[in-house]
Amino acid sequence: MKRLLLAVMCVAVLGGCSSGRKQKVEARPAPVKMAAPVQAPALDAKGQPIAHVPFRPGVSSVTVENMAKKQGCTGGVGAGLMTPPGPVEVYRMVCNNRTIFQAKCELRQCKQI
Q: Strand, helix or coil at 49?
């Protein structure tokens, strides 16, 4: 019984179970890289290009976003800080209708520009 088990294992290990023929390996075509879509620069309501500035939150970002919401300006990522942090800061927010809402905050007291 041990010899039978040993013989079966030897046949399986030595490849007695395989057909002995090599399988064809089909060449696959190289993946095609998709080109990134070209986007036109964003324009404001007057047709002027909107400068893309990375979003930086500031201390008064929420206050300026609430002021903009009262004026009917919603959307985008929110009010971003345009100047270095300090006692006087300028915030900008791009609205859904492509208008720009700007506010100047002095010691966290904000007014629309």
A: strand
Asked if the model's pLDDT at residue 16 lies above 60, the reply is no
Residue ranges with strand state E in 27-99: 80-81, 88-94
Q: Please state the rounded mean pLDDT for residues 24-48.
A: 71
**pLDDT computed for residue 36 by the predictor:** 63
Cα gap 110→103, rounded to integer Å: 6
3-state helix, strand, coil split of the chain in percent (to 5) is 20, 20, 60
Note whether residue 96 is domain-resident. yes
Task: Establish if 98 belongs to a structural domain.
Answer: yes
* Domain count of the fold of the chain: 1
Q: According to the per-residue pLDDT averaged within each range, which of 6-10, 30-34, 73-77, 84-88 is highest?
A: 84-88
